[in-house]
Amino acid sequence: MNEPLPQADLQRSGLFLPPGEMRELTRKAVSRADTRQWSIEELSWGMLRPEALTDTDRSVVRFITFIEDHIPGYLTYFLDAFPVSGEDLSIEEFCFNREYFRFLVSWANEEERHASVLARYQIEAGIRSPEELMRELAEEGRKKFALPYEEPVQAFTYTLVQEKATQLFYQRFKAVAKEPVLRDLLHRLARDEARHFAFYSELIGAYIKRHGLAATVPDLKDVLSTFRMPLADTLNGYWRWSLKVMDATSYDHTEAYDALVRHVKDFATSRGDAAASDLAEFVHRIRSI
């Protein structure tokens, strides 16, 4: 893939970025991940103090374990949405998807580590036995994950907001948690989610640069108007549980919308100012409901 694809082909594939541009974005994201790896064994498990956990702490850990453990479902969705096999794929679409696949593999490895470390934490802290945990995670994990979006930029926008919301949540939870191993774990999780957010921020920025704010903002607004956190429609007791989690951590996932608005404003030009302001007002109305 040293030769650029013909511009005519790229124009017919307006939903995608040029594969070479995607390759560079992915290269940087994977490189950042490679230099910031950590292992589950690095945590000071011998310092774990289960007695420092409140009932709320235990409930929140169980909640986020369900979310993180659904990584097979998330990955399956993205592999289906951005396939890397099939002769019906155009060359440019395959190349775009192939470059995104490089990020997905790295991202999935980190998210699987999140799931594994949270599962181990539950077992080490006596929150659940290995057998209990395996069965309850399986009950939820076998449910299909889906997003109601057709355009790539919409799927990427959803993930940008979700990654930022998750980062903010881990930071808020760390601020109220007292158990030392949990605090260390939450710090590591938040740092990983911040890197994932950075990749999707750069990706959305590339779409804005290529297609302009006027063409991109409607897709962003569509995502924000329909946004739900992962498993909101499938996890048993999600809404009641999530409200308790929010109260315990002073957390509101819509704060992540502000990060998207700030990012869009950074790309605003004299021609794009109206679109950027329109998005900001749109988010303000959503958060006022």
Note the main attributes of this structure.
single chain, 289 residues, mainly alpha, Ribonucleotide Reductase, subunit A, 0% strand, globular
Please describe the biggest sheet, giving its number of strands, its sense, and whether it closes into a barrel: none
| Highest-level CATH class | Mainly Alpha
CATH architecture tag? Orthogonal Bundle
* Helical percentage: over 70%
Give the strand tally: 0
Decide which structural class fits the backbone. Answer: mainly alpha
| SSE series | HHHHHHHHHHHH
CATH superfamily: Ribonucleotide Reductase, subunit A
Query: Mean pLDDT, nearest integer?
Result: 90
- What would the CATH topology be? Ribonucleotide Reductase, subunit A
Q: What's the Cα radius of gyration?
A: 20 Å
Distance between the termini: 48 Å
**DSSP strand (E) fraction?**
under 5%
The unreliable regions are 1-13
Globally, the shape reads globular
Q: What is the helix tally?
A: 12
Overall domain count: 1
